[in-house]
Amino acid sequence: MPLSDPTDYQHGAAAQTAILLVNLGTPDAPTSSALRRYLGEFLSDPRVVEIPKPVWWLILNGIVLPIRSSKSAAKYASVWTDRGSPLQVGTADLTQAVAAEMARAGHHVLVRYAMRYGNPSVASVLDELARQNVTRILLVPLYPQYCAATTASTLDAVSAWMRRSRRLPELRVLNHFHDVPVYIEALADKIETQWRQQGRPDRLVMSFHGMPARTLKLGDPYYCECHKTGRLLAERLGLGASDYVVTFQSRFGKQEWLQPYTEPTLRKLAQDGVARVDVVCPGFTVDCLETLEEIAMEGKQAFLSSGGKVFHYIDCLNADAHWAQGFSKLLTTHLQGWDTMAPTDPGALAATRALAQAMGADNLG
Ligand SMILES: C=CC1=C(C)c2cc3[nH]c(cc4nc(cc5[nH]c(cc1n2)c(C)c5CCC(=O)O)C(CCC(=O)O)=C4C)c(C)c3C=C
Ligand SMILES: [Fe+2]
Ligand SMILES: [Fe+2]
């Protein structure tokens, strides 16, 4: 297709759409030095630790990083796989599964993932998408429940990249999917599959990542969205109020976090004579340290050592086929109007690039 208008380079036939999945991030290796870099970046984010900078800088560098880096490295080593950190592997697999579903449905979209902390960074992936002439991005933080520490922080990273970029893409954001039927259905399907083989537990524990309790009073919807996911899942599974409990794990620091806490709840259930619990983590799309080590290892130990008899951890959805299909359908509804069914014409792209180059454009990437 001959092009005469150089602005087509920016707006026309060569426009590309991308889906960018963003997860939290994970260390590059299960070592103290890698943990120091990762935790240093993560815990310096003012969305995560809301303590005035100079005070927190001293505590972080003087106490937290020296102690926590080696302790956490040992925990990561206990879940590390041949392919790397479980969070990385699961996120990469989910990305590939969504890309395959999109292609199968005839959509011409790039599907990539980035990590909020560590690698591949949000900025590096956005740079790569810009080089590929992507002008429309559906941003998908991989957290079912909205939280300032995760969802808003992901947007901070994207807006930091935008602040230094000339040519901004159109941006849509999937803020949360805590109550979306395909999500609840995929979770219920996973749980029921396990129950068909192992029978039902005496109690289903739904453990979500915790947050400082004050964030609820400050207006963060996270706590309420966790409870809504819990209620919808329980309704879908036909559970009564006494058949399940919503708890919060991974407390960090000395202040009060959202309650009830997961591990004390597991101990209490065992002491009260509950013989079998199953634990599911519907706040995590992909298995990670917090599910595989903190729940499936430490939580199990806490329950069994307090008198409990049987403990089952139910894996996250990860890249399960049923979930990847449902999730892709959900993402497709957010692509409406972006005409992703029309293939990008590589000849047109090359022609517009050549034209822009001839005019001295320096933004070709
Ligand atoms: C799912 C939502 C998450 C929220 C909300 C969240 C808040 C939050 N987390 C910390 C501190 C840590 N979290 C750590 C690991 C971690 N956290 C999440 C998710 C949420 N965090 C995930 C998916 C992971 C696992 C990453 C992996 O590599 O597998 C860690 C690191 C591990 C450790 O040293 O214990 C810390 C630290 C705070 C302070 C916070 C909110 C204020
Ligand atoms: Fe966390
Ligand atoms: Fe943890």
Outline the secondary-structure elements.
Elements: H1 8-11, E1 16-23, H2 32-43, H3 53-79, H4 86-104, E2 109-115, H5 122-131, E3 134-141, H6 148-163, E4 170-173, H7 181-198, E5 203-209, H8 214-217, H9 222-237, E6 244-249, H10 262-271, E7 276-280, H11 289-292, H12 294-305, E8 310-314, H13 321-333, H14 346-358
Parallel strand pairs: 1-2, 1-3, 3-4, 5-6, 5-7, 7-8
Helix pairs in contact: 2-3, 4-13, 7-9, 7-13, 10-12
Bound molecules: the ligand C=CC1=C(C)c2cc3[nH]c(cc4nc(cc5[nH]c(cc1n2)c(C)c5CCC(=O)O)C(CCC(=O)O)=C4C)c(C)c3C=C and fe (ii) ion (2 copies).
Q: What this model shows, in words?
A:
With 365 residues, the chain is of the alpha/beta class. It has two domains: 8-177 and 322-358, Rossmann fold, CATH 3.40.50; 181-314, Rossmann fold (3-Layer(aba) Sandwich), CATH 3.40.50. The protein has 14 helices and eight strands. It has helices at residues 8-11, 32-43, 53-79, 86-104, 122-131, 148-163, 181-198, 214-217, 222-237, 262-271, 289-292, 294-305, 321-333, 346-358, and strands at residues 16-23, 109-115, 134-141, 170-173, 203-209, 244-249, 276-280, 310-314. Strands 2-1-3-4 form a four-stranded parallel sheet, with helices on both faces. Strand 3 (134-141), helix 6 and strand 4 (170-173) form a beta-alpha-beta unit. The chain is globular. The protein starts with 7 loop residues before the first helix and ends in a 7-residue tail after the last helix. Mean pLDDT is 93; it is low at 1-13. The ligand C=CC1=C(C)c2cc3[nH]c(cc4nc(cc5[nH]c(cc1n2)c(C)c5CCC(=O)O)C(CCC(=O)O)=C4C)c(C)c3C=C binds at residues 24, 26, 39, 48-49, 68, 72, 85, 87, 143, 147, 149-150, 209, 211-212, 250, 252, 283-284, 288-290.
